[in-house]
Amino acid sequence: MTRSADRNHDITRVAVSTVIFTVRRTGDAISLSLPLVRRTRDPHEGQWALPGGWLDISESLDAAASRTLAETTGLQPSYLEQLYAFGAVDRSPSRVVSIVYWALLRQDDVDAQVAAHAAAGDAPENVAWFDATDLPGLAFDHNDIVDYALWRLRNKVGYSRIAHGLLADEFTLAELREVYEAILRRRLDPANFRRQAEGSGTLIPTERFRTGSHRPARLYRYNRDVELADHGPLGVRA
Amino acid sequence: MTRSADRNHDITRVAVSTVIFTVRRTGDAISLSLPLVRRTRDPHEGQWALPGGWLDISESLDAAASRTLAETTGLQPSYLEQLYAFGAVDRSPSRVVSIVYWALLRQDDVDAQVAAHAAAGDAPENVAWFDATDLPGLAFDHNDIVDYALWRLRNKVGYSRIAHGLLADEFTLAELREVYEAILRRRLDPANFRRQAEGSGTLIPTERFRTGSHRPARLYRYNRDVELADHGPLGVRA
């Protein structure tokens, strides 16, 4: 179409990468966690990087994100959402535009998928989980990508998506608040949080209660109508 | 990295396209409008398409969006925001991943830029403005792209961004409501709209008033602190 394109189109490559967030509980502490893959070749051999790979000529961006995530980590989220395209000229030794996807995955789903691969003897190699807010220096611009994903998670993700992506089907408001505290990295006032969450229209109270060492706490589930409406025309087509 | 990439990376190309929204007033009617460019070569010769072009090897995605928009339409928004990457396998005869940007542009800025190009004798050719909600069949998947941009505009754009992007520095709540009505394509209750807009924290009342045939209406300006905080880590780095 333009002279520069004729000269250059054969040396810009398209890759996909994926940021998978889950919450991990260690004793009383809850933290946001994501899987990384250790690179086994240059550039950045030996460094940790986001799961991903090259876009194949015959697959959509969404399919490439799912395939490369499964190939590198064995994980299969129920859906992946496109986050952003990163294309700085100097982000790789060769010119690479990376389309980045993200997903929220419940810890019990992660555990089940990891256990299934271990049982089948095809556990992925070179994968480890890291605290999302305390990462080592990653390959390429992947620290910047994680920072951007964390910012989007902190700013743009509503109650229903958090509940759907990171909690069991039914959860107490205290459990939901703990997840928010892990994401935001600060304590939230329980009464204020309850008022906002209940007023969001995205949570449905059940008649069931969590009992245990504390006084019984009502269980909630998220409102699927709200969640499904959030995908827009792309969701309908996908 | 993978065999498929070695085989295929030389035939996936990266393009950028841009959706520019403005509001146009015709008499009492206000409508959402966007510029399209008539294609002068195959594929889809003669059809209208979004402004855009190929990514150059030596420019960032943001720079490519600005450059190709200026080359095809002469328009220079104060900023462009990345919207989404479209990469369906069959969206073009060859494999093309398009990174789509969008911007909101005030009508007076559009008029000033168009007039400047006319005066300089370098007015762009093959450009026309269309009602965003009543488009002809566009080249490639560009109708889908506009639908997605409209959906994002309807769902995700807050009071301050609308005010900043589509209105003059100072505006009445009725003017802001009219813009919302053009975007949402339905009438809004003035009292409810006033309550929500005033409660949003993104509008600042001034001590000035619009006078004319109606009773004086207070002028507002948008809260730049809120708007600037919305760009996240990418905005800070850019």
UniProtKB/TrEMBL annotation, chains A, B:
<dbReference type="InterPro" id="IPR015797">
    <property type="entry name" value="NUDIX_hydrolase-like_dom_sf"/>
</dbReference>
<dbReference type="InterPro" id="IPR036390">
    <property type="entry name" value="WH_DNA-bd_sf"/>
</dbReference>
<protein>
    <submittedName>
        <fullName>NUDIX domain-containing protein</fullName>
    </submittedName>
</protein>
<feature type="domain" description="Nudix hydrolase">
    <location>
        <begin position="11"/>
        <end position="153"/>
    </location>
</feature>
<dbReference type="InterPro" id="IPR054105">
    <property type="entry name" value="WHD_NrtR"/>
</dbReference>
<dbReference type="Pfam" id="PF00293">
    <property type="entry name" value="NUDIX"/>
</dbReference>
<dbReference type="Pfam" id="PF21906">
    <property type="entry name" value="WHD_NrtR"/>
</dbReference>
<dbReference type="InterPro" id="IPR000086">
    <property type="entry name" value="NUDIX_hydrolase_dom"/>
</dbReference>
<dbReference type="InterPro" id="IPR036388">
    <property type="entry name" value="WH-like_DNA-bd_sf"/>
</dbReference>
